[in-house]
């Protein structure tokens, strides 16, 4: 909830290629394989009525939401299993004496500090007392500017976020980027949308702010004044912020200019002091992603006092530290972010939160242990073969597109053939020798880890982009596409059953991990990815006619999703989720073509458990999105997550795919039916 933006996606995983389990079975013979477990289905519902319920209803019935979850699905199951595996690795380390200063000792100590509730409760808010005092004594704009830099160095993002990444128009070099931020509730709608639901959330948020100030010694009057100050500033930030839809516009969010010109355009901070504190006195240029945000914020802050800004910075600090302080802070944090925002009923057990903290601070070090024990080399080799098969299939689909001209097709094929493929784990591991872990306090260790990460990033300013760097740890159950490096990445954590399953038949594997791979590849050509060339530069390689044809199809898809009501009167945001929806559809189409290619020259596989190979492909895809979710979490995700909800990643995506209709004999009059003239395929 309190994380800064990420350009990543929750993606799936499943089997491998050319498995012999059923491709050689005679047509007349039916075999059994529980890669698709009928118990996870709800066959009382016809596939043409609600395919998601048909494919996933049994699983949802058998896996009711537990109090500690706002949503629980197949991804959560695998993530829970991974947490157990990481926990066992950490506890093995902790059971043995470790040499001081080694990575093993740092992992064990960080975990022990995270588990030690007795110590954190004894310390109260002492771990942040010195920092709060430093904020309280700020006396000038210059000092405040220096404090903003200090907090950003420690992992926070008051007013805006600072990060170093590839220059969108010179992708081989890194550049400093500034990005709108500073909202404790994550999205501007929570501040600006005028309805009863949002009003209740806002009141709960103000109560939470009041609690944190009270815990740190403020009187009722002081706490109330601080609440008003924090709210005033965050509401001002919300009004200045770009919408979620505008944030998807790559051209609008690229605003490279000289530091001198940037300083002339706004006076949000004393920029010389700010940059000096970050060691960037000689910085010549930067990308002010949302260029209009800073003058608007500057104008607003002219009517905000220094004392009000100090209250805001104090809250940013307390809010970031709350999960790592005593039970008062931890419970208040959970009551708002867990209960009010997400609908959870109870906290995750402390050991899970401790594992998350270790993964956050020493992620690649943990990942190195993880792959040694849980990721066989054979999985990497099989994935490489499967990725190649998907790459071939996407190339075939591009070549056959009736709406795209030859010159654009040639550029698209060049980009596809230039993909960098990362599977399992990085070729070189990160060095954690500079990270100090001590027995002073839990928050102090989190703080040092954040500074360590920031310095790691800061060292890349004006340096060539390190294309070997990974943006997820190996134990992560996820995957991603990066437009600037034109890479697709599949960490080891997702490459295991029920996603990457050596016991499953080919149809299920292509429907699961195959769609994941196709999804990531299609991100290179979605509404954002299509703006980048084979080298990762934001270059328009499209003819005007082809770009118009793409936009026409993308608009139809966006409107389809925007017409979906997700809960009560809340609609999905088809424009905000467009990239993921294009990737879901592309993943399905490309993976299905790759599967059809794998059958050339072979007999059609016999049905398994009553399902044809075509049906098993689509069931393999749908089953991975089984999920129960609370209404509060539906609302939150609709406002903050660029992915559609699981139900619509199935039903809305499949309604556009002709082969799906054939596989399940879906006909006009069925709720899942969409008239052919209303269907749209982008890729």
Describe the structure.
This protein is an alpha+beta fold. It has a domain at about 140-325: Neutral endopeptidase , domain2 (Neutral endopeptidase, domain 2, Orthogonal Bundle). The protein is about 50% helix and about 5% strand. Strand 9 (about 565) and strand 10 (about 570) form a beta hairpin. The radius of gyration is 26 Å and the shape is globular.
What keywords describe this structure?
683 residues; alpha+beta; Neutral endopeptidase, domain 2; four-stranded mixed sheet; three-stranded mixed sheet; 11 strands; disordered N terminus
Sketch the major β-sheet. 4 strands, mixed
Terminal residue distance: 33 Å
CATH architecture of the domain at 138-324, by name, is Orthogonal Bundle
Query: What is the number of helices?
Result: 26
Strand order of the largest sheet: 2-3-5-4
| CATH secondary-structure class of the domain at 138-324 | Mainly Alpha
DSSP strand content: 5-15%
Superfamily at the CATH H level of the domain at 138-324?
Neutral endopeptidase , domain2
| Helix fraction bin | 40-55%
CATH topology of the domain at 138-324: Neutral endopeptidase, domain 2
Q: Tell me, what's the shape?
A: globular
Low-confidence stretches: 1-29
Give the helix/strand class: alpha+beta
Mean pLDDT: 93
Query: What Rg, in angstroms, do the CA atoms define?
Result: 26 Å
Number of strands: 11
